[in-house]
Design a protein that fits this description.
The protein is 70% helix and 0% strand. The protein contains 15 helices and no strands.
């Protein structure tokens, strides 16, 4: 097991680039730890090294993922997110607690939050909708990334037209949050929901626009026709 992690880290270091590192750091307000590797290269390294894992039982893969997440290095967290999604056919409802621990303990920037939640957490929620109750609890957290996670975990399901009532419930909870990372997260969730439910999301935005932060509002209406955008943005 340690051999795979060591081999992976060696490969990541060999592909690191100072210029890419400095470029990547500019996307974050907080301090982040990066090797400096283009995302397509990280994806390929993740794929190649996943093949080296002899025992692809979910519990074994999750141990490797947690070891990578612990490092706090962005590219290692991306590999962890990729590997954790690779075993999604083995997911069970109890895995929510594992992912909840990862979100609360290891997520410290928007990129790790979105990469983990869009696919790993989102797929689990789609498979087991009864877990929505636990996801909604995240929206009441004091942790900005846990709050953002409650919204961005529904990005892929919402794009498919799923869980609209729950999307609105999470948006209600996060509505007046003054953190722009949270505002962008729930605005994004509303935006993708509008692709399947434009009328309902537009009506929701119109009811809330007087008090909805402008950042969230702009994200929510981004995919709507020009005339609806103009109406939503009007004072």
């Amino acid at each position: 097991m340690n051999r795979i992690i060591e081999h992976l880290r060696t490969e990541l270091k060999l592909n690191s680039d100072e210029k890419t590192k400095l470029s990547g750091e500019r996307f974050f307000k907080e301090n982040v730890s990066l090797y400096g590797i283009k995302s397509a290269v990280v994806s390929q390294i993740a794929k190649d090294h996943y093949k080296l894992i002899d025992n692809k039982d979910k519990s074994n893969v999750f141990i490797l993922c947690e070891e990578l997440l612990k490092s706090g290095i962005m590219e290692e967290s991306f590999v962890a997110c990729s590997w954790s999604y690779n075993v999604h056919e083995q997911y069970q409802p109890a895995d929510f607690k594992v992912f909840e621990k990862w979100v609360k303990k290891y997520v410290a920037n928007w990129a790790t939050c979105d990469t983990l939640c869009n696919h790993t957490v989102g797929t689990l929620i789609e498979m087991y909708p009864e877990l929505l109750a636990g996801l909604k609890k995240w929206s009441h957290s004091d942790n900005r990334w846990v709050k953002r996670a409650s919204a961005v975990s529904l990005i892929v399901p919402a794009k498919k037209g799923l869980f609209l009532k729950d999307v609105f419930e999470i948006a209600d909870t996060l509505h007046a949050d003054n953190d722009d990372m949270v505002q962008k997260g729930y605005g994004w969730m509303l935006k993708v929901a509008s692709q399947a439910h434009q009328k309902e999301v537009f009506e929701y935005v119109m009811k809330k626009k007087a008090t909805m932060p402008r950042t969230a509002l702009r994200y929510a209406i981004e995919k709507m026709p020009k005339e609806l955008k103009t109406e939503a943005m009007a004072k």
